[in-house]
Each structure stands twice: as C-alpha cells, then as structure tokens.
User: Fold Sigma-54 dependent transcriptional regulator from Hymenobacter volaticus.
Amino acid sequence: MPHNSVLLIDDENNLRQLLGRVLELEGYTVLTASNAHRGLELLREHTQEILVVLSDVKLPDGHGLSLLPRYKAVAPLAEVILMTAFGTIADGVQAMKSGAFDYLTKGDSDDQLVVVVERAAEKARLQRRVAELEKQLAPQFTFDSMIGSSAPLTQAKALALRVAPTNSTVLLEGPTGSGKELFAQAIHAASGRRSKPFVAVNCSAFPKDLLESELFGYRKGAFTGALTDKRGLMEEANGGTLFLDEIGELPLELQAKLLRVLETQSFTKIGDTKPIQVNVRIVAATNRNLRQEAEEGHFRSDLYYRLAVFTVAVPPLNARREDIAPLAEYFLHFYAAKLRKRLRGMEPQVLTQLQRHDWRGNVRELKNVLERAAILADTDTLTVDDLPTEFQYFATGSVANEASDKTLRALEKRQIRAVLQETGGNKMEAARQLGIGTKTLYRKIQEYGL
Assistant:
C-alpha cells in the first residue's frame, strides 16, 4: 500500500463514499471504516502507510475526543482531523489541546477539506522523516552506547549491568534529566525480555483517574464514556518491562494497586471483578528521596521496599564533568545532521564555558543548549556567541587577569558574576542569594559591565 493513505472513519455511508472519492481524486489511497473499532484495526494494520486519520466525532462505539488518544497511541506519527455535524468552539479548543490537527464542521467546502488534509499529511511526512533520521543517528539503547567514561557513570553502568539479566525490580535514583530512562532502556535491552515491549509512562503527566485507566485499563461501561474495553499499559508491557518514571508522584490509592502487581503479578481493571495475570518487570525512577518520603508517610513504605530491591544511583552531569566534552560533541554532530548544517566542531572557549556551567538540568539541559546553539550557528564552527546568555558571563574580559586582582571591588565583581552564572541570569534569585536588593544588583551589573 502506498505511504500516502488516509483513514476515513464515519458511520454515514454516503458521506464516506463522497469524501473518499474527493480524496482519491487528490491522489490519496483511502481506507474507510464505519466505527471506531474497525478504524483502530485498520490503523494498527497500516500504521506505516496512514498519514492522516479523518474521524467523525460521534461514532456508534465511541466519541472522537475520547478516541483521539487511542488513535495517537496506535499511530503517534499520524495526524488526526475530527469532523462533526454540529461544531462548537469549546469542542474545537478541546480537540486541539488533546492533539488533533484540526476540527472541521461537516458541510464545509470540499476544497477546505482537501487543504486541511494536505497540510496534515505534509506534517505527518515531516515527522516521519525526522523520526527516521533520529533512528539512524541515535545509537541502540545499550550500556555500551552510553557516552562517557567517568568513574561515577562507569560504576552506575556496572551496577545496572549486574541486575539487568534478572527479573528483579529496579529503582533508579537521580535528578531530573540525568538519563534515568536511558538506563531503564539499557536494562531492558540487556535482559531476557529484550524482544518484548518496553513501555514507559511518566506518573506525573496524568491526573489520578486518567493514570489509573492508562495503567490498568477498564471494562466497557465502567464509567461515563467507557464505550469499549481498554487495554492498560500494564497489559501492553506483558512479557516485557514497564518503566514508571517519577514514581514518587504516584497517588497513594494507585500505590496499593501497584504493590499488588509486584506481589502477585495480577491486577483488576476498572469496572471488572476478575483479576488479570501478567508477566511484567517493573523499573521505576525518581528524583526524590523515596526512603525519606516513606518515613514521613508520603509514600507507602511497603511499596518502597518492593521497588528498592535493587537501587542504582544515576549520577548528575556536574558529578561527571569529564563526560561533558564527548556528550557536547555528540549532540553537536547529531543536531548538525538533523538541521542539515555543516558544523565541524566548536571553539575551545565554548567547551570551557560548558565545563564551567553548573548543569542543574543535567544531560537534558546540555542537549537543549547544543540544539539551540546549532540552530543559531552561522559558520561551520560553534562559537560562544551561539550559546545562551548565561554562558557568556565568563566569556567577556580576561578572567585570568581578574583572578589575580585581590581588591574588594574585584572580589565583589567575581562573586556577582559567579552567582549570576549559577542562577542562569535570574537577577531576582541572584539578588536573594547575594543578600542585596534587586535595584542594587542592577546598579552593580551596570557598574561592572556585566
């Protein structure tokens, strides 16, 4: 089937035929379904070919707004356009917030439909090209592919590699952005479950009720809007690994349900009475001190001890500064290829600035900085001017000469500069740390030429 397909889901036969014919005349291959169940089947069968899903809002077995996440879950690179006979602004806003490409009213001109579908298809094509490029450039998720040779990283990798072949639950501890999900993927790839699914969910990204249905699924009729059975991520990960990121954000009610899964490898869907057996390994991650949270009653102590069967501390970037250079080089070449720029390297001063930074956002922050710098770069060599403002405090003037100046004025200048760098240029926070007023800080910045 050509990689230029549109899936049309509508229970009105005449409308399906009419819109299908219009789109076929524009060169699209059109697949049709009269209900959501059949539409999802076709979407699963032809995920690689379908660029756009054109779905009615009111279907016999589901509502378009509630079906939208399911369409995106099956085909995340496809774009979804919702259609309705009675469009409202509120529904349109909600649809766009939920990830729909557009929200159309039936009866509008065919020309408008064709234009919207073409725009959606072009976006889907672009997303596929980017995904393919990232797939080609990104290494496999293995411990060997992790960039860096510092002692803290080497120790963490060695520890994780020891537990990977087992079925033990693993708790990854470390600050946000340090690479905990990469460790989880590497543990999965080094285990006997590598050929089975690796399913990741961020526990802080969903409200409690939605998180429960996402994790455990529900039966038809369990609540208003539950028009069909839903498989949860726990079932999707059966035989493989379920990665629970930000586990400290899991509501207490769901902690009890997760504890049962760890103890019995079974759970009960919402609206069901019969338990479902699964064979799933849990790898969890947190940026909190879960032991302390458990002692203070904010996290179930019995669940903590079940999760912390084997704990791996993922080191922050500022604890392995010798890894900054190879990581920066990797991200630079990655984004140069992605942006189709001829960036061959960076000035020595750029690396100096990167080494001096505090990296509170860890590897994720470094990645974002290099992406931004690659976008701004106008030559084949990255310069300090391409870096964000907070990296340029030390780039002006002679730091070596200033360091030898022991006058009170020079000491004050160096301290203000250091705190500004530490706070990322946040002047209110810098003033608070320095113990001076914001107006005074602005005056000092102007006085010292910072």
